[in-house]
Amino acid sequence: MTNDKNLKTYLSKAQQEHWAIGHFNFSTAEQLKAIVEAAAELKSPVMVATSEGEAEFVGYDQAVALVKSYQQAGYAVWLNADHHKSFESAKKAIDAGYDTVLIDASRLNLDENIGTTSQVVQYAHRGLTSIMVEGELGYLRGSSEVQEKVEINPTDYTQPEQAADFVARTGVERLAVVFGNIHGIVTEVITTTPTPNGVGAPTEASGEEKLDIEHLKKITVAVPETILVLHGASGLPDEDVRAAIAAGISNVHINTELRVAYHDTLHAELEKEPNQTTPYKFLASSQDAMKELVKKKLKLFGSVDKI
Ligand SMILES: [Zn+2]
How far apart are CA 116 and CA 150, in angstroms? Predict the structure, then answer.
């Protein structure tokens, strides 16, 4: 890493002091600029990220070059490969020069997840370079968009004893955990309780995700050294995010809310000025909307004035 400000140091500090580093996705240069400027104005360290799809769109080398341009200017920003689903795609990000990678093999069974994740850790820690690797354990439902209905089943949660085993066997330094969170923004959530035959029975339907903070606490006890990551924080009430950070989350991912802010503002702008064809003019208001939202989230995460 060319950046003299170290991500691991900031994450450990966040873990000890009970605040969290924000993690925001981008797929265009002006979105990245909005995130970096918002963080810099608040003196907040920040992680930026591309999923596999976002990275293919921006270009792996181009994403690295863009983020490096900010790092070389002294910004406390790091690039993560978000939800890379295979060894091959994680390797592609590592080879391109990403600062850190999330290998998400959580759709596989436990042994296969451990196998794939270990392979990425070994590759990331080979030779002189050692980049931070995040793994994911538990079934995180949903996708990074607005969805009508998602079921949550407590059997999907990250089990504390499995988390300890997973961390010990893979060597990951960050772990994405599931304790009631869902990817994306959901308009209807159905919580099911497992019945003795293993089939979930719907018990509760509500418009909100509900985090199980007591369950999170059990995970923090099982893996006290590991940086725990909350995915799917879009659409969660502020008090739930605060409670999760107080209970041991040190890294929070926001994607869908940013996409919605960017899209809706751009849509309104194009309707207001249908003849405006200059991109830096019609994109300015959506860039501002993203910047404001990132600032709001950084304040919520408690990472202001930490640089
Ligand atoms: Zn995620």
Answer: 27
Domain count for the chain, please give it.
Answer: 1
Q: Which residues are catalytic, by number?
A: 82
Per-residue pLDDT of the chain (307 residues; tens, 9 = 90+): 444 569 999 999 999 999 999 999 999 999 999 999 999 999 999 999 999 999 999 999 999 999 999 999 999 999 999 999 999 999 999 999 999 999 999 999 999 999 999 999 999 999 777 899 999 999 887 778 787 777 777 888 999 999 999 999 999 999 999 999 988 877 766 766 555 554 444 444 455 678 999 999 999 999 999 999 999 888 899 999 999 999 999 999 999 999 999 999 999 999 999 999 999 999 999 999 999 999 999 999 999 999 9
Q: What are the distances in angstroms from CA 274 to CA 31, 36, 264, 267, 283?
A: 22, 29, 15, 10, 13
Question: pTM above the 0.85 mark?
Answer: yes
Ligand 1 centroid to residue 286 C-alpha, Å: 23
Residue 29 lies in a domain: yes
Q: How far is the CA of 93 from the centre of ligand 1 (A)?
A: 17
What single-letter amino acid sits at 124? A
Q: What is the CATH number of the domain that holds 201?
A: 3.20.20.70
Domain that holds residue 79: 7-256
Please check whether residue 304 lies inside any domain of the structure.
Answer: no
Task: Let me know if residue 277 belongs to a domain.
Answer: no
